[in-house]
Amino acid sequence: MNIKEIQDLIKFVSRQNVTEVEIEQKDFKITIKSEEKKSEAQQILVQAPVQAMPQAIAAPVPAAAPVAPVAAPVDEESKYVTVLSPMIGTFYRSAGPDKDQFVSVGDTIKPGDVVCIIEAMKLFNEIEAEISGRIVKVLVDDSTPVEYDQPLFLVDPS
Fold first, then answer.
1. Going by C-beta distance under 8 Å and a sequence separation of 6 or more, which residues neighbour residue 55?
2. C-alpha torsion 27→28→29→34, nearest 10
3. How many CB atoms lie within 10 A of CB 142?
């Protein structure tokens, strides 16, 4: 099961008002729980024995680049657009410790530009800009966990 299938399953569970779903296959088990009144309060437990995973899967592999969703402008800074995290994972500003950052404050971006990487389940997903503009603020520290729909950047689209 890949990250896209897991994300689709989480969305399905929240839409159907199901409180718990458990899937078990030979090499992993996933449990998704949600509170009845809070459709976004979900817990994911993934247990995969390291010995059962082939080495090629355990190694970091660049994945297809998901597109970061763009939220409505922030109230207090109404002229800026917030770039949101499209997934749960670890946020990285560069491809490696000795590499340059993808974007910094003041940089101009356009649709398709890589703005960061989010690592999820040992897969490194390049997050691409969906809008044009100038980076005003980076809202997340490098190498920190991020949640789905968490604000990552403020962008001035003008």
1. none
2. -160
3. 13
**Cβ burial, residue 38 (10 Å; 0-12/13-18/19+):** exposed
- CA pair distance 131, 45, nearest whole angstrom: 34
Between the CA atoms of 155, 40, 125 and 73, what dihedral angle is there, to the nearest 10 degrees? Answer: -10
pLDDT tens string 11-66: 777 776 667 777 777 777 777 776 654 434 444 454 444 444 444 444 455 555 55
d(CA 88, CA 118): 8
Q: Residue 133, by phi and psi: left (phi above 0), alpha (psi -120 to 50) or beta?
A: left
Looking up residue 135, the CATH number of its domain turns out to be 2.40.50.100
- Encoded amino acid at 59, one letter: A
- Looking at the fold, whether 140 and 105 belong to one and the same domain comes out as yes
Domain that holds residue 104: 62-156
pTM exceeds 0.85, yes or no: no
